[in-house]
Amino acid sequence: MASFAKLNLENIVENVISVNNEVLLENGIEKEQKGIDFLKSIYGVDTKWKQTSYNTKGGMHYLSNNFGPSLTQEKAFRKNFACIGMIYDESRDAFIQPQPYPSWILDEDTCWWEAPTPEPNDGPIYDWDETTKSWIPRN
What we know:
Elements: E1 2-7, E2 13-19, E3 25-26, E4 29-30, H1 32-43, E5 48-52, E6 56-57, E7 60-61, E8 87-89, E9 94-96, E10 105-107, E11 112-114, E12 126-129, E13 134-137
């Protein structure tokens, strides 16, 4: 199955729909536009769609059987699988979560937001405190 994100006027993902791969075929090759045309025939021509890959995360394509990254990465696209509430950034051709805190920085390779300092992994669960710009152990 192929997945498509429905975008609103601000390029925010409103829904993700699965489409049978057969719909995308043109001379045996999958074409995104075929899926978009199919979805517009159902949901209306004014809807905006972008294909997304369920197995793409942080700019990498992963095997569907959880055995790690694919040997080749040509199936990786748009950096991350689209989820409701994510933003499609046209200039990066990527799906990105909304920025969680003003101090966090976007990693251009993964299109994931990162804290200015890495979260400790010494056992406790931590929460980010934007006021102090530090990780605070959860009580």
